[in-house]
Write a structure and sequence with these properties.
Largest sheet: 10 strands, mixed
Strand content: 15-25%
CATH class of the largest domain: Alpha Beta
CATH architecture of the largest domain: Alpha-Beta Complex
CATH topology of the largest domain: Spore Coat Polysaccharide Biosynthesis Protein SpsA, Chain A
Mean pLDDT: 83
Number of strands: 21
């Protein structure tokens, strides 16, 4: 079928009657089918409209499921080359459908085409927009819009700065009238049903651009649209709050800042849990002291001022932190499942016993034993309350689809399809599946899974690029790369991006490599997280590298200037070479060489200060590969070593554990980075070839 028209209706039967009449009066030459999805309307005129248009396919929902879900039901009801999504308040003009289809056929890269919409008085309606910016939001959704009604920012957002009588690519098209290519829908997926009303069109167009399709506007096809803008009626309007909620959902899904928070989710959540534990411990201590103060008449000994207990309180913070760390309370994944009460009692019980023993052995006469005895049940209750509130907040955010981990699946379609059938509601597990990667074979393209909601996004080799493009925070693998497989370099890139990696495999070696087991989608999985000690070690390396870079910038500037300025030294080359770390990450470095092509000592390497300050180099760690090629795992031992190592920038000294501190410092001074002798002529020739070769696109 060439064309399917999908109309989503709710309580506007008069508009629907007029829309269907125009479709009957001016149908497409290629024919087609009209699908009307009604979201449990209550208006009396709907039955008459239903009787007058029996040739349409009618879908009556039992409840108002929202615009996106209603649209998806219509898309799934018929298989067509193109889908025209219409609001009931749109009236088709003569020849508009044919011209719209002709334009789409002439532009095969167009995933969505938007026609020109006219107001009822014949004036042009601004139906294509630029994506929202922070300034746009302030001027469109706050009182600032009334103060600056003629803002240039709003004019650019509404695209009032171009002639709407010309074809052109646009950021997004109003969902009230747009033509979607069937193959593009299969590649990007249907509308996202998290958007009950509003922003489903922005998200759909955004995904079209991400998937490599275009969103085009054409004035050759014209429709009349009675655009109401219900969201602009003010704070008392239900539509306004629905619009605001959809806006929050859109930026939760695609916002860069939110993506960064999700990538650091584990360490941030564990830090928040530690703060709640310390707050609960402090509250328990304060309550125990207050109760003892109220019961002073029952005790013979006086109660010392609370200031005398402050050192003990700070000691209890330290004691609880160490105890909770050692008992696994702050390990990654702890907050994904509610822990048994007995385990919590054991953790707080250890803290209480150690605190009692410390005060007894220390002969602290100022400490009331009654305060400590009251503290034991209170700290158990307050820390349990903090954990429960945190878990409840996380579950609530996940149910509202505001804290879901954007997840990419990598595996064969048969495996993924079987898992998706038994995984249950992934939203309940905090997962938002963006799509899957698999080798397409001779077909060249793979179909979407799970009723079209999980599209194929490419081959596994492009996982890193897809992760950037779709704001992925978790990648789940079903197969392990073979020894020496280039996919290991992709895995290393994902780890450098701080993307959570999960493996659905019978690989016990993952646990030996310090991964931990979790149940995911009803089956066992092994996870290597990014938080905990790894995050602390990465921060420590970064601080040390920044300090070393600042010192080198000060100490090495004069030797560098002398090297560049002295006539006798002008013949010595200063080269820029591309090196890579063990994970395959390539970075350029500038090195000062002596007459034989060997890298000079540290005082001459002032150009290394920049990479140290930017975090491209570390002070210690595995040295860079001068040949620009990563050492991929070839056997079991190398595989374990590869997986255990943290993804970090190359170091100038090499691992400090392999030598004494004095030896590492001497090596740093004599041969920083361990680059050795570099072939200057070969490097210059390679650079010339690179400049002469046009860059490709991933």
């Amino acid at each position: 079928m060439k064309l399917a028209v999908v109309i989503i209706h709710y309580n506007t039967s008069g508009d629907l009657d007029r829309c269907l009449a125009s479709l009957n009066a001016y149908p497409a030459s290629a024919g087609g089918r009209v699908v009307v999805v009604d979201n449990a309307s209550q208006d009396e005129g709907l039955a008459d409209v239903h009787r007058r248009y029996p040739d349409c396919e009618w879908i009556f929902n039992s409840e108002n499921e929202g615009y996106a879900k209603g649209c998806n039901r219509g898309l799934a009801a018929v298989d067509a080359e193109y889908y025209l999504v219409l609001n009931p308040d749109v009236v088709v003009q003569p020849g508009a459908l044919d011209r719209l289809l002709e334009f789409a056929d002439a532009h095969p890269r167009a995933g969505i085409v938007g026609p020109q919409l006219l107001n009822e008085d014949g004036s042009i309606q601004h139906s294509c927009r630029r994506f929202y910016t922070f300034r746009t939001l302030l001027l469109r959704r706050t009182i600032l819009g009334r103060i600056f009604p003629d803002s240039e920012t709003v004019r650019r957002h509404l695209m009032q700065d171009f002639d709407h009588r010309q074809d052109r690519p646009v950021d997004w098209i109003l969902g009230g009238c747009l033509l979607a290519r069937g193959s593009a829908v299969a590649r990007t997926g249907p509308m996202d049903e998290r958007f009950f009303l509003y922003f489903e069109d922005v998200d759909w167009c955004f995904r079209m651009w991400r998937a490599g399709f275009e969103v085009l506007y054409t004035p050759d096809a014209r429709f009349v649209h009675r655009h109401r803008r219900a969201s602009a009626k003010g704070l008392r309007s239900r539509s306004f709050w629905s619009h605001l909620g959809s806006l929050i959902s859109f930026y939760e899904k695609w916002g860069m800042f939110v993506w960064l928070l999700k990538k650091w989710r584990d360490p941030l959540l564990l830090m928040l849990m530690w703060l709640l534990d310390m707050a609960g411990l402090t509250a328990a201590f304060g309550l125990a002291y207050s109760l003892r103060s109220l019961g002073q008449g029952f005790f013979a000994e006086p109660l010392y001022p609370f200031a005398e207990y402050q050192p003990l309180l700070m000691y209890s913070w330290l004691l609880a932190t160490v105890t909770f760390l050692m008992t696994g309370r702050y390990r990654p994944g702890y907050l994904r499942h509610r822990r048994p009460l007995l385990q919590h009692l054991q953790q707080t019980g250890v803290v209480s016993v150690l605190l009692l023993a410390s005060t007894y052995l220390g002969h602290l006469e100022v400490v009331s034993r009654a305060v400590l005895l009251l503290f034991i049940p209170l700290v158990t209750a307050t820390t349990a309350l903090g954990e429960a509130l945190l878990l409840r907040g996380l579950r609530r955010l996940e149910r509202e689809r505001l804290s879901l981990e954007r997840t990419l699946l990598v595996g064969q379609p048969t495996e993924l399809r079987a898992w998706l059938e038994i995984a249950g509601d992934l939203v309940e597990q905090g997962v938002d599946v963006a799509g899957y990667l698999a080798e397409p074979g001779e077909a060249g393209v793979l179909p979407p899974l799970c009723d079209g909601t999980v599209p194929w996004l490419g081959r596994p080799a492009v996982a890193a690029e897809v992760a950037r493009r779709y704001r992925i925070s978790q990648v789940v693998f079903w197969t392990l790369p073979a020894a020496g497989d280039l996919l290991w370099a992709t895995v290393g890139t994902l780890r450098r991006m701080r993307v959570r990696l999960r493996w659905h495999a019978q690989g016990v070696w993952l646990l030996a490599a310090r991964a931990h087991a979790e149940v995911f989608g009803g089956s066992l999985s092994a996870v290597q997280a990014t938080g905990g000690r790894r995050a602390a070690a990465a921060l420590g390396r970064r601080l040390v590298g920044w300090t070393a870079g600042a010192l080198l910038a000060v100490i090495g500037l004069l030797p560098w200037l002398w090297l560049k300025a002295t006539p006798a030294r002008q013949g010595d080359p200063v080269v820029e070479r591309e090196v890579c770390d063990r994970w395959g990450h390539v970075l350029p470095v500038r090195l000062a060489l002596d007459g034989e092509g060997h890298a000079r000592a540290l005082p001459w390497q002032w150009a290394l200060a920049g990479p140290l300050l930017r975090g491209h180099l570390n002070l210690w760690g595995d040295r860079a590969r001068p040949d620009g090629r990563a050492d991929l795992p070839a056997d079991g031992d190398e595989l374990l070593d590869f997986w255990r190592a943290d993804p970090a920038a190359p170091g100038l000294t090499g691992p400090w554990a392999a030598a004494t501190v004095a030896g590492a410092l001497a090596r740093l001074w004599r041969e920083p980075g361990g680059f050795g002798r570099l072939d200057v002529a070969a490097g210059a020739a390679a650079a010339a070839r690179e400049r002469a070769t046009p860059g490709g696109e991933v």
